[in-house]
Write a structure and sequence with these properties.
The structure is a single chain. The chain is α/β, with parallel strands linked by helices. The chain is about 35% helix and about 20% strand. It is built from six helices and eight strands. The chain has a five-stranded parallel β-sheet with strand order 2-1-3-4-5, with helices on both faces. Strands 7-6-8 form a three-stranded antiparallel β-sheet, with no helix packed on it. It folds into two domains: about 130 residues, Rossmann fold; about 45 residues.
Length: about 190
């Protein structure tokens, strides 16, 4: 089994790091997104095999709010994007998962987990959906974490990439999304 990419879209940094550590240890390549807009951008840029998506993000009031705060709407948005339409999505929720089961199925999610996510059950579901358990990457091929630090934003944007910034983020820089960014790359 080759490198299986999973996009984790979660606004709670603790949950995001816990899930990332679990999936990387299991041999998956992980991409992180902290809000709905980053989720859509990362899906387009990295074309993951699966997305773990929270059902709700807090509104990004610094950028005027936005429609991408609801995981169910994000799924609909992804379905309309030609390059991301076939990406499978598993939802994660703080709400009562039993009450959201039918809504999740209707939206096209292939699974729904109650937070905190049971890691063993998640890994079993991923193995079933993705056709087996990936082989952990050898030590000689470390992943890179690319951090884009902007002067305009207090939030640090991190992208787990193999190589340079993805094209979508390069376009943001070339459009003047930020002035004079500092890009730091570190092997993990």
């Amino acid at each position: 089994m080759g490198n299986v990419k999973i996009l984790i879209a979660e606004n709670n940094r603790h949950d995001l790091e816990t899930l990332t550590r679990t999936l990387v240890t299991a041999g998956y390549e992980v991409i992180q997104a902290l809000d709905g807009a980053e989720t859509v951008s990362a899906a387009r840029c990295h074309l993951p095999d699966l997305i773990l998506l929270t059902t709700s993000f807090p509104p990004d009031v610094s950028h005027g709010g936005g429609a991408l705060t609801d995981g169910f709407l994000i799924i609909q948005w992804l379905k309309r994007m030609e390059e991301a339409a076939g990406i499978r999505v598993i939802l994660m929720t703080d709400e009562n998962a039993e009450t959201l089961q039918s809504r999740a199925r209707a939206a096209g999610a292939v699974g729904l987990f109650q937070k905190p996510v049971n890691e063993e059950a998640l890994l079993g579901t991923l193995a079933r959906l993705l056709g087996g358990v990936p082989q952990p990457q050898p030590e000689s091929a470390p992943a890179k974490l690319i951090i884009l630090v902007t002067k305009r934003a207090f939030v640090v944007r991190a992208f787990a990439c193999k190589g340079a910034l993805c094209p979508a983020n390069r376009r943001k820089l070339s459009r003047g999304w930020t002035s004079k960014p500092a890009v730091l790359a570190r092997s993990l």
